[in-house]
Fold these 2 entries.
Entry 1:
Amino acid sequence: MKYVTAIMTQSTKAENCAWNMQYTPYDQSYLDAFYRHKDNDGRRFRLSDITAPGGAKASKGNPHYEFLGVTRYWRFSKETMQKLYKAGRIVQTAPGTVPAQKRYLDEMPGVPLQDLWLDIKPVQGLSAETVGYDTQKPEPLLDRIIKLSSNEGDLVLDCFCGSGTTAAVAEKLKRRWITCDLGRFAIHTARKRLLAIPGVRPFIVQNLGKYERQLWAGSQFGDGNGERAEARQRDYVNFILGLYQAKPLNGYSWLHGVKGGRMVHVGAVDAPVSVGDVAQIAAEFKRAIGTGKDAPKTNGVDLLGWDFAFEMNEVAKQQAALANIQVRFLRIPHDAMDKRAVEQGDIHFFELAALSVETKMDKREVTLKLSDFVIPPDDVPEDVRRTVKHWSQWIDY
């Protein structure tokens, strides 16, 4: 079965939109019928008619003159005809016959793209590009669409990325791209696929699982406004504290629990823990010192979050150190949403992935030294973990 697809007519508000016509190869029967001739160097060509309509109504200004002993209305001016003849592009097969123009096959782009695309086959099970994703599209299909409607450096958006074919092809064609999906498996599949591209440019994954978490929180703790919303938030915080084996606290806005003498903050379901949050936590921590039985016993704070702002490990830790607070960032694992994992007590919190780099500058030379490196195994798919043979591969990943 051949792969059949259709592309909608392009619609845009911009007047300078890209539209680069694509071509498909000529059918072999067409080549055999029309490109029968060959030059001495083996180049195939066909002979094309260069006469034009004549007469008062039909000529439309076409020139009328004698060329190689033949008088006709022609498609070209006499000057252009002489240049083409001198270049060997006009031939006369016999004296008195009408001259014709050589059209070389290697100069023809092919057949302009039609509405139905019958030449692209689906991804086969043993194909080198298959990633085991049910709805995976073949790369030649996206290659054609992206070339047709964009230029190098343009931005390509795919709101339902699936296996990541659009992003992978856009990357290979030197386009910028944004791709989205609600499924965790789709995001991991696309990410792994992009990382396998030689020379892939740096990219980031944002808000992985955010919508999945929102759905989970709504079903687990309910929806509501006012007092019900406060109760829902309290239930959520206490649930995460229970998984972390921390004791809940009351009377604080940013300090939610305590474990082993360290205060604990639980990040929101739908927002990353930010540097601003750390500032608020530090301020509340300082006010809480020595103010009751639940007052901090150490200067340590554990921040639990689903997502973290990218500058957390550098800026936020420096900010906390200035306030004489020692912070740790721990990621709330995806397994917290798995009822079976919760019931089995198989929930583990890992420190946020981080690189600590020392820099040394000497005039125009900069030396970088890796002084620490942390990556939580929970962030890395099992098949990737099995392939890592050297510590440096963790950093590459």
Entry 2:
Amino acid sequence: MPRDRSIPRRLRDPIIAFVAGLACFGAASWDRLAEHSSDNHYVYMAEGMVHGRLHLEGAPPHRNDWAKYGDEWYVSFPPAPAVLMIPGVAIWGLDLNDRIFTLLFAAAGPALLLLLLQTLAAAGRIDRRRRDLWLLAALYGLGTVYFFAAVQGSVWYTAHMVGGVAMILFLLASLDGRHPLLAGLCLGAAFACRPLMLLAFPVFLYEALRPHAPEDARGIGRWLTGAVRSAGPARLSRAVVLFGLPVAAVIGLVMLMNWARFDDPFEFGHRYLQVRWAGRIEKWGLFNYHFLPRNLAVALASLPWLSERPPHIGISRHGLALWLTTPVLLWVLWPAARTRQYAALAIAAVLVALPSLLYQNTGWIQFGYRFSLDYTPLLMLMLAAGGRRFGKAFWALALVAFAVNLFGAVTFDRMWEFYPAESTRHLFQPD
């Protein structure tokens, strides 16, 4: 009897989603795909790795976000995307098109999220219909600031796209604690793209305990005690060690790289960026309570404004508020069911989000609050696990999210008339 060579059912929808993502992001990128971005820092980092060095050969092509330490220039961003670019750079050198590279990861993100949602639905852990799963995957790719970030291709957005894929793979590998080594490797890779993603680790701890916990346990203490007693300390210890080893290995390698470049294992190089706000970093550091008000202002209160001058709409270059770019995220605040699964996701999301609110930079220049991409996969899972029905209001606001983010993907870094230059120094509409 001939073997069935058809694609397994559970992979068909993700593959369709990947192809659709390539089409949507490719169409929005369009002319950009013809050449690499002007901020192709990762290509320069990969080119150095190919030739056995960690610094640039000579001066950088411009002065935007390069670090200088001593007499050498460096790329200060964590290295995972550059490592993945090494084969391409070995072939094409500095001509590697980082925008096409980014596009492939951008299309993979929503497809993998759909696979994760399908896996949870098949296991009975979320009660959602197929169209709901598709809606959430589409919202992730086209209804959040993911859309505008996916079609840029420059260093900051490449980190978001690769890091997002690593985060979703971490969540997939963590389910029921079945693949601790793989989960640790994926979270380590996410760290090596966007370090704050490391703080999503509570999801694995919950998943490792969940299959062994008594369903009727009341209170976190009884739930934990029952899970440990049922699984056995030896089994849980083994899972945690297997998870922790690759995470520690990746962190160790990054620290060695930092030490080799900046004589400090904890220094990525951001303190040596040759930017006009270097004095601000010197005074307050990279993370400080001092920066909390401005970051909260952008994340929660930044709105567009109307103007008498064409095109009559202005947007701060610090970006728009989260609830405006993706209004359906408000559903996260009012779940119908506050389960332990929901709580674990919420704890991880808060842990990842908090340091960004203390960071010296709002994420600018941007269409929306792009640092939210570090935890948006967790928010999508919270929407799925919250149990609240996706009714007419949800679908209507989803359509608003699609329209708003399509506008951002098309106009950002193309039509600067919508992003007036004076807004670089203002969080809100200039007086």
